[in-house]
Design brief:
about 20% strand, 7 strands, about 30% helix, seven-stranded mixed β-sheet, alpha/beta, Aconitase, domain 4, about 160 residues
Length: about 160
């Protein structure tokens, strides 16, 4: 997969709980049920219609992904076709779950000083860690080489040969 991810922003705020991203009533091993929970959380938002979430990049605030450690809280992004998640900072378990699934998730503390609107064009270069959004180029904390290998393999399970 390309190191460059580009698409419209799906903007989520600070302290977003995984129970909001994926309410427990949608917990299932069935991907359709899991995906429907996330779509319900963003349905009706300006520029975030159910049909057009694919290709987006999530741009979030601080402590993104707090709450439950259920993997489905991270898997919903993958199932919805989200290309990457960038946040000012992440809750530790959520960040690990997203990376385990093979979806890039990079912290970018400089995002705290930038106003990003729903649908703004976002570009993330995984090889350099550069994030371009709202007319500014910011430096993310980048990916550890180990996690880059995991992402290149498509997630932790494929990387381990499972």
């Amino acid at each position: 997969m390309s190191d460059l991810r580009r698409g419209p922003a799906l903007v989520l705020g600070d302290d977003v709980n995984t129970d909001v991203l994926h309410p427990s009533r949608f917990y299932s091993l069935d991907d359709t049920t899991v995906r429907s929970g996330f779509l319900g959380a963003v349905e009706g938002r300006e520029g975030a219609a159910k049909a057009d979430l694919g290709g987006r990049l999530v741009v979030a605030g601080t402590n993104f992904g707090i709450g439950s450690s259920r993997e489905t809280g991270a898997r919903v992004f993958q199932l919805a076709g989200i290309q990457a998640v960038v946040a000012v900072s992440f809750a530790r378990i959520f960040h690990r779950n997203v990376l385990n699934l093979g979806l890039p998730a990079l912290a970018c503390p400089a995002l705290a000083d930038v106003t990003v609107e729903e649908g703004d064009e976002v570009s993330l270069d995984l090889s350099t860690g550069e994030l371009t959004v709202a007319g500014q180029t910011l430096q993310t904390e980048g990916l550890d080489p180990h996690w880059q290998q995991v992402l290149d393999a498509g997630g932790l399970a494929p990387w381990l040969g499972l």
